[in-house]
Each structure stands twice: as structure tokens, then as C-alpha cells.
Amino acid sequence: MAAIIQIIFATIFILEFLFGNLLNGFIALVNFVNWVQRRTISPVDQIITALTISRLVQLWLVQINILIFLIHQVKMTEIVVRVINIAWVVTNHFNLWISTKLSIFYLLKIVNFSSSIFLYLKWRTRHVVSVTLMMSLAFLVLNIIVINTHIDVWVELNVRIMPYNFSSRNSTLFLKHLLFTNSIFASIPFAVSLVAFFLLIFSLWKHEKKMCNNARGSRDSNTKAHIKALKTGLAFLSLYAIFLLSLVINVCSIELQENYMIFLFSLFTGIAFSLFHSYILILGNTKLRQASLSVLWWMRCRPKDVRSSGS
């Protein structure tokens, strides 16, 4: 049974790894080519490119983790455990917070409030999103400190007494604390993105009310921008909520299943979240969507061209 589960996990990871590299590599390539052609790159493309790079790094780091857990050829020493967990915390932090940075950018670019504070933030959009990412580093440092504290306690109770064993009681509590800690810190950017989403809804409501008072029934460009941002935001938050829910389920059920399977499942859900969000970014971005359609059209027409030339 364990061998079958490992085969299933390995298959899932291979598919996620291939599609993750394909989608994120495609986004990075399109933005890079556009940057070279125009000799400039827009702020939103900068954020999306940074997000895709962080996700590519995360994919390759997770691949190393999967090889460690499935092949069992690396001795799980204290240093290995510490490096694996910190690498996951760092890459997942930038993955979530750059996504949140994108939500803040769309909010400040689209929403129009009369507040002087908001107008100042809107005027300094680039500075605001950059400062937000820099301030998030405080949460990253705190997350690493907490994770290292859990590892120190686990080492004191477990590793110095017996070999590394995922099925031990101490390791069960250790993984439970890790998942709970990561869930708490992952919920912070989710809360920020949720606030941005509700502010978009409130802004759209005010804008629609203003349009009705002006007796304009047709949708203007600002309304369309609101709706487009809300669709993308809703899809992103839905995936984010599923990701957080999976972490909570892992924490609650960790004592009922094989611990290393729980840890692998948490990695897979994190990759799946990034994978589907990258797909949403392609659909929601006109340039990326047109480039993907061009690639699909080229792939569909090329075999016909090859057959016609061969005949």
C-alpha cells in the first residue's frame, strides 16, 4: 500500500513539476522577450516576472525534497532538516507575498477614493508595493526564528536519543508545530489580499452608484477594469483558501496518517496553488493570453505544414 501511495505521489509531482515549469517559464519568457523588444518593462510585468521566478525556484527546491523523502538516500540529519524547512519557508513566503503585492498594485491602480491618504498612496503605488514586500521580511524573519525553535526542541528530544524517525511521537508533534506555524504566517498575506478584494468591491459599488446617478447605463473602462480585477482576485482567493484549508486539515489529521505523507501532501498543495494561479495570470493578462494562443495555433498548424511539405 505504501508503495502504491508513493507511486501516486511521484506521478502527481512529475505532472505538477512539468506544468509548473512550463507555465512559469512561459510567463517569464514572454515578459523577457517583450522587455528586450521594447527596452522597458511595466511595473505589473516586473511583479509577475518576479513571482514566476520565485515559483520556479520553489519547484526545483521541492523536487530536492521529494527525492529526499521518496528515495530515502539522504541521511536526515539536523542540518538537512533545517535547510529543507527554511528553504520551503523562504520560497513560500515570496510566492505568497509577491502575489499579495500584485493584489495591492491592482487595487491602487484601479480604485478611486477621495481620501487624501489613499490619493497619496495611489500616487506612490510603486513605492507602496515595494515597501509592503520589504515589511513582509519581518514576518519572514519571525517565521524562520519560530521554525528554528521547533527544530531545536525536536533535536533535543529526538535526534540525540534515536535516529531520525518520522513515525515517532516527537516527530509527529514537530511536524504538527511546523504546519501550524506555516499556516499562521500564510494566513497573513491572505488577509491582506482579502482586504484588497473587498475594497475593490466597495469601489465598484460606489462607481456603479455614481454612474447610475449620471444616467449612464453602459459600462465604462473603469467598471470593466474593476470587474476584471475582481474575477482574477476571486479566483486567486479561492485557490488561496483551498491551500490554507489543506494546511489546516494536515494539522488536524497528522496523527492519523503517515507523517512523511502529510508533509509531502502539504508540499503538493503548495505547488498546486502556485500552478493554478499561474494559469489564472495567463488568462487574465491580455499579452500572455495572446502569446499562449499564438503558441497553441503554431503547434496545431505545424504538423499540417510538415505533412504538406513532405508530400
UniProtKB/TrEMBL annotation:
* Species lineage: Eukaryota, Metazoa, Chordata, Craniata, Vertebrata
UniProt record similarity statement: Belongs to the G-protein coupled receptor T2R family.
Instruction: Report which superkingdom the organism of origin falls in.
Output: Eukaryota
Q: Where in the cell is it found?
A: Membrane
UniProt source species: Mus caroli
- Record Pfam families: TAS2R (PF05296)
* Coiled coil start-end: none
The protein's matches in PANTHER family, at most eight in alphabetical order, are given as: TASTE RECEPTOR TYPE 2, TASTE RECEPTOR TYPE 2 MEMBER 14
Record Gene3D superfamilies: Rhodopsin 7-helix transmembrane proteins (1.20.1070.10)
Named from the GO MF annotations, one term is: G protein-coupled receptor activity
Which UniProt keywords are present, listed alphabetically?
A: G-protein coupled receptor, Glycoprotein, Membrane, Receptor, Sensory transduction, Taste, Transducer, Transmembrane, Transmembrane helix
Gene Ontology terms, cellular component aspect?
A: membrane
Q: Which residues cross the membrane?
A: 7-27, 47-72, 79-98, 104-121, 128-147, 184-205, 226-249, 261-282
- Membrane topology term: Multi-pass membrane protein
Q: What is this protein called?
A: Taste receptor type 2
**Principal subcellular localization:** membrane
